[in-house]
């Protein structure tokens, strides 16, 4: 600022102070003129977006990268069931975006993206336009409830806690306030974010009932025939550890929810509840619809499976929002982010990335001490020109796997924000 | 100092430099595309403080010591067979020549125990990165004779300079350059892409708790106590 303090009149100073007070959460905007341009714009500050932005700059420090995220700080969904069941503090899941700017030089813009105009190569935000040469969209999921309006109230009363933030904090309060009675947890049909998460959550809440010696019964209502992943590990844990306090109901669809009478109506009967975690079906963030990257009726964005590029050149969609052979998970989004960063950096140098490796590795608690895990690695095969998967599940519940789980998450956080 | 004394001292220094590892280190640095970093020469010793000898390094046992900093863990393994040198190529195009095993059988190798993927390392509580002997392979990957990190299944080959065999790591493990002199072993530097900066940045709080201050954790050592990893770590997590 060129003007000295001595030049500022008392009146200006007071007005200034008030504006600073009002504008405090928007300070980042002051760096953001109404129109600006970046070589790469990354939309979404989750696992996919943060990884992409960081690796773009790490590999090419001269690149101009903007990351746009509306949340003021990062909160991890992986490990959030630990928080919900009292095994971890919320602060352990939260990280500041500052480090991306301070350490790697990513320009982080705290703003809401309203749409993308791919023909003009601009991202429209609530405070202006940002042009780009390359665009990476990692906007995550929305709940797919348009055809199922009965979910609307439930989102408020019984938050799904599959989007980071308030939902988790409110659900945690409901869980803490629960003193006994009936619990209902529902699982939507796939694809949804983090396949083992509902099964882990059911196990951890059941484990908590036992730990606190509550007089309670859990009705775990699954739209699927069996757990969609690690089914052997989950089923044996449910049977061995929780069969006296929980009933697992499979292939049951939610038909209606009455949040006032506290009843979930399903194809397998009505269930009254004192505590409910109703997880609705999911689809890609509606930002993609508004950006013409989803065709009518499509739930997830189609991408080139080798590059995660959408039908628009140099516009990539990664993470849970894309239709991919990888499951929808933070770790998969992290793998995809690294790949897309390499592809963009190579393209800028006039090269193409040839061979790559993608990995998805997930853990799930089945009690407050033991966990199971799954790993799928995908290696590009130059002959068949596709990624060949190798799938491994360890369904034997172990305390050592629970320790690995914690280290797995901490490793990711070190990579993203270390 | 008189003229005669000065000349005598210079002569002694010249002779001494012939066996000084720093000269060896300089030569190594020139050949290695900037991938070798010489550190303080440190003798490897047993818990009782006496120098570690070849017969003390049992084949297929995972030993730990700390080098070049007081807090940076390294593994020492006698692979039980001659390990020839190898050319290590990095994804960024750089390459370096790993010098193979040391000792009478050229079977003793040493690597940084900081996983090059996301920096998991052996702490007094847990070690997720470990050596799996050929007769005790990993339950998950079924591979033996490897160094594997159980957090994200990064696999490294101790016979090939710590190269990545499988998993998500972009880089090999950095290797510790060992020299044997008169039956004693010395660490003289680190070859490859070390992860020390990231390690000290990431674990500032943990290291301060363990070592009192960051400076203590960063201190360069001239003596390394070598012990079996399960004597240092409470729970060796294998997978």
Write a structural description:
The complex is a heterodimer of chains A (418) and B (239). Chain A has 418 residues and is α/β, with parallel strands linked by helices. Chain A contains eleven helices and 23 strands. Chain A has helices at residues 10-23, 47-59, 80-84, 98-104, 151-157, 166-177, 197-211, 231-242, 286-290, 330-348, 399-417; strands at residues 35-43, 65-69, 73-75, 94-96, 107-110, 113-117, 122-125, 128-137, 141-143, 181-187, 216-222, 246-249, 254-258, 263-266, 269-272, 275-278, 282-284, 301-302, 315-317, 322-323, 357-365, 371-381, 386-398. In chain A, the strands form seven sheets. In chain A, strands 1, 2, 5, 6, 7, 8 and 19 form a seven-stranded mixed β-sheet that branches. Chain A has a four-stranded parallel β-sheet with strand order 12-11-10-16. In chain A, strand 6 and strand 7 (122-125) form a beta hairpin. In chain A, helix 2 (47-59) runs parallel beside helix 10 and helix 7 (197-211) packs parallel to helix 8. The longest helix of chain A is centred in the C-terminal third of the chain and has 19 residues, at 330-348. Chain B is globular, with a radius of gyration of 18 Å. The A-B interface holds A 335, 357, 359, 361, 375, 377, 392, 394, 400-401, 403-404, 407-408, 411-412, 414-415, 418 and B 115, 117-120, 126, 128, 139-141, 150-153, 166-168, 198, 201-202, 235, 237-239.
């Amino acid at each position: 600022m060129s003007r000295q303090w001595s030049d500022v009149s008392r009146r200006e100073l007071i007005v200034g102070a008030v504006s600073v007070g009002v504008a405090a959460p928007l300070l980042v905007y002051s760096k953001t003129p109404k129109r600006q341009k970046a070589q790469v714009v990354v939309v979404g500050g989750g696992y996919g977006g943060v990884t992409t932005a960081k690796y773009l700059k790490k590999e090419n420090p001269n690149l101009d990268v903007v990351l746009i995220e509306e949340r003021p700080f990062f909160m991890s969904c992986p490990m959030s069931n630990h928080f919900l069941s009292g095994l971890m503090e919320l602060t352990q899941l939260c990280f500041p975006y500052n480090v991306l700017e301070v350490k790697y030089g990513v320009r982080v813009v705290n703003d809401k993206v309203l749409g993308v105009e791919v023909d003009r190569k601009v991202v429209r935000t609530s405070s202006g336009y940002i042009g780009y040469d390359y665009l990476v969209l990692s906007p995550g999921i929305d709940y797919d409830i348009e055809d199922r309006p009965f979910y609307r109230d439930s989102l408020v009363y019984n938050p799904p806690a599959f989007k980071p933030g308030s939902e988790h904090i409110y659900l945690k309060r409901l869980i803490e306030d629960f003193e006994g009675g009936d619990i209902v947890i529902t699982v939507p049909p796939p694809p949804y974010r983090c396949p083992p998460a509902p099964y882990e959550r059911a196990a951890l809440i059941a484990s908590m009932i036992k730990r606190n010696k509550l007089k309670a019964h859990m009705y775990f209502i699954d739209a699927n025939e069996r757990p969609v992943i690690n089914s052997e590990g989950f089923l044996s844990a449910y049977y061995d550890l929780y069969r006296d306090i929980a009933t697992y109901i499979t292939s049951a669809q939610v038909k209606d929810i009455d949040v006032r009478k506290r009843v979930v109506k399903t194809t397998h009967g009505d269930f009254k509840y004192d505590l409910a975690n109703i997880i609705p079906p999911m689809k890609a963030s509606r930002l993609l619809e508004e950006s013409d990257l989803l065709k009518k009726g499509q739930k997830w964005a189609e991408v080139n499976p080798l590059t995660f590029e959408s039908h628009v050149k140099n516009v990539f969609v990664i993470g849970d929002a894309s239709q991919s052979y990888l499951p929808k998970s933070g770790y998969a989004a992290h793998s995809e982010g690294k790949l897309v960063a390499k592809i963009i950096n190579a393209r800028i140098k006039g090269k193409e990335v040839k061979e790559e490796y993608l990995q998805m590795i997930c853990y799930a608690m089945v009690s407050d001490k033991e966990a199971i895990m799954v790993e799928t690695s995908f290696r590009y095969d130059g002959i068949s020109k596709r990624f060949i998967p190798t799938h491994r599940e360890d369904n034997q519940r172990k305390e050592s796997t629970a320790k690995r789980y914690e280290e797995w998450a901490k490793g990711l956080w070190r990579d993203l924000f270390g | 100092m008189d003229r005669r004394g000065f000349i005598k001292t210079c002569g002694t220094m010249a002779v001494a430099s012939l066996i000084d590892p720093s000269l060896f280190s300089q030569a190594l640095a020139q050949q290695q595309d900037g991938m070798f970093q010489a550190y303080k020469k440190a003798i490897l010793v047993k818990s009782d403080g006496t120098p570690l000898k070849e017969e003390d390094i049992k084949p297929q046992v995972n030993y730990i010591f700390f080098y070049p900093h007081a807090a940076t863990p390294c593994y020492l393994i006698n692979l039980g067979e001659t390990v020839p040198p190898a050319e290590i190529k990095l994804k960024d195009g750089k390459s370096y020549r790993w010098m193979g095993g040391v000792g009478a059988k050229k079977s003793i190798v040493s690597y940084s125990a900081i996983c090059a993927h996301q920096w998991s390392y052996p702490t007094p509580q847990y070690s997720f990165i470990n050596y799996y002997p050929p007769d005790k392979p990993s339950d998950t990957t079924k591979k033996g004779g490897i160094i594997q990190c159980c957090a994200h299944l990064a696999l490294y080959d101790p016979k090939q300079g710590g190269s990545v065999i499988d998993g998500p790591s972009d880089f090999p493990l950095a290797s510790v350059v060992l020299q044997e002199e008169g039956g004693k072993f010395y660490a003289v530097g680190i070859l490859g892409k070390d992860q020390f900066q990231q390690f000290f940045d990431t674990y500032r709080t943990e290291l301060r708790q363990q070592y009192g201050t960051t400076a203590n954790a960063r201190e360069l050592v001239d003596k390394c106590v070598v012990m079996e990893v399960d004597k240092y770590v409470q729970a060796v997590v294998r997978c």
